[in-house]
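Entry 14. Structure prediction run on the chain below.
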Amino acid sequence: MSTTISLKEKITKIAPVCGITGVLFISICFLFAALSYENTRYDYSIFNHFISELGHTGCSPYYYIFSAGLCLGGIMSTILLAGFSFYLGNKIAKVGLFTGVISGTACFFVGVFPADTYLYPHLLAALTFFFGNLITAAIFTMSIYTDKEEKIPTWYVIPGLVVVIIGIIFLSLPTESVAEFLKDREAYIRPDYWMNAIFEWLVFFSLSIWLLIISIFLKRKTKK
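Output returned:
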C-alpha cells in the first residue's frame, strides 16, 4: 500500500534546506557586493552604510548579485516559514505564515528595485519587509510560547524575541539624518558610527540567526 505525501508534508520536508540555503546565499551575495563596492569618498562599512547601498547601480558593480541574493532569500525564507507554520499547526502559526509571505515577498521586491534608481518603490518594499519581519517573528514566538503540544522547546522564543526587540529599536530610531542623506547621498557627511545603519545590519544578523535556528530544528525533526 503506497503512502501519499501531502503538499504540506513536502513543504515541511524541504523547508529547512531552503532556509539554510537562503541565508547562506544572501550572506555570500552581501559579502561579495561589499568587497566590490566602489566609492571615491568612503569604503563600505556596516557601521555607517545601509544594506541597500550594496545594490546601488552607481557604486556596486555587481549590484545584480546583491539583488539576486535578496530575491532568492525572500523566496527561500517564505518556504521555510511555511514549513515551520505547518509543523506547528496551530492557529497563531497560520497567521505567522500569512505575514511571513508578505515579508518574504517584500524582500524579493527590495531586490527588484535598487534604491538609487527606484527610491520610492524600494522604500515601500523595505519598510514592508522590516515591519513584516518584526510582526512575523513576534507571531511565531507567540505561537511557540502558547503551543500546548510543546512541539518545540520554549527556549526557542529567545531568538525570536531578539529579532523583535532589535526590529523595534531600529524602527524607533530618529530618521532626520536618513532623510538628509536621501536628499543628496554624495554630499552627505556620514558619521563614523551611524545607529540607523548599525541597527539595520543587526536586524539582518538577528533574522539570519533566527532563520538558521528554525531550519536546523526542522531538519532534525524531519529526519525522524
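The chain has one domain: 7-223.
Filed with the rest of this week's runs.
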